[in-house]
TrEMBL record:
Taxonomic placement: Eukaryota, Fungi, Dikarya, Ascomycota, Saccharomycotina
Keyword Chaperone: yes
GO biological process, one term: proteasome assembly
Compositional bias ranges of the Polar residues kind: 8-17, 33-49
Family: Belongs to the POMP/UMP1 family.
Keywords: Chaperone
A Gene Ontology term for the protein's cellular component: nucleus
Region (Disordered) residue spans: 1-64
Name under which the protein is recorded: LANO_0E07822g1_1
């Protein structure tokens, strides 16, 4: 598993490094005219703007799914992860309930999908608060007709 960040992550930039030609008046400032790099570049462009664990957390569910499928392949052979992926594709393509709200991942909340992903016993935020559905301070409820039109492409 690759949970630990790479060693090439830069959290600090030295302003007195020897790879830049420095100014004679102020040795901490790079001399952009001697370097001929087209102008001064801010130090913030040389550092990474995000924490190295942020990308790991964004793809956490997919990483865990890939790890589970790899473990199934090692224990049960190639047929088990293929069967699970095919069953999940069947459920995602055929299971349509216009009253269920769509989550951020794009899939509607489905008990079948939760069972196939081994999440039937977990309670997420979306299970309790299924979308706001509030327009102008009034709860409108699910838009059944809009969901059917969207699924049929009307």
């Amino acid at each position: 598993m690759s949970i630990v960040p790479n060693k090439n992550y830069r959290s600090a930039v030295s302003s007195t490094s020897s790879h830049h030609k420095t100014s004679n008046a102020a040795p901490a400032l790079p001399d952009s005219l001697r370097n001929q790099n087209g102008g001064a570049t801010p130090l913030s462009t040389q550092t990474n703007g995000k924490h190295p664990l942020e990308t790991k957390l964004q793809s956490w569910d997919q990483t865990q799914r890939n790890r589970d499928l790899e473990q199934y392949r090692r224990v049960f052979g190639l047929a088990e992860p293929m069967k699970r992926e095919m069953e999940l594709a069947i459920v995602q393509n055929s299971d349509f309930n216009p009253l269920s709200q769509s989550t951020d991942s794009g899939f509607s909340t489905s008990l079948h999908r939760d069972i196939l992903l081994n999440r039937e016993a977990s309670v997420d935020w979306e299970d309790v608060y299924q979308g706001s559905g509030i327009v102008g301070g009034v709860s409108m409820g699910p838009d059944v007709h809009g969901a059917i039109e969207k699924s049929l492409g009307i």
